[in-house]
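Ticket #4471: structure export looks truncated?
Reporter: QA, pipeline team
Priority: medium

Steps to reproduce: submit the single chain below to the structure queue and open the exported record.
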Amino acid sequence: VQLQASGGGLVQAGGSLRLSCAASGRTFSSYGMGWFRQVPGKEREFVAAITWSGGSVYDEDFGKGRLTISRDNAKNTVYLQMNSLKPEDTAVYYCAATLRRSGSTVQWDYEYWGQGTLVTVSS
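Actual output as written to the record:
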């Protein structure tokens, strides 16, 4: 599976962005998918994950209600809608795929990673 993340950019605090992750391969629908983020000098951290059937889980520290993860299996794409963005949300955001259909909050469970897309939130 090859993953291509996009949708990052510069946004003002309080704004929104929708990240996309396009996957190659015909078995996309059977993968659990996740989004992680990383700030230079810090560990990569979990943001959100979605199961093969659309169930989702979010990082609680990110802030309830600010995130929505979704997937379109017909388009081999997973999305991350982020609202009410804060300067501390500035990071490189990575999408990842796992053979675990239920997804995972643990980065080590993911076998495939995209290249990352930079999100910068200005104050």
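Status: closed, not a bug. The export was complete when the record was re-opened. Leaving a note from the reviewer for reference: The chain has a mean pLDDT of 95.
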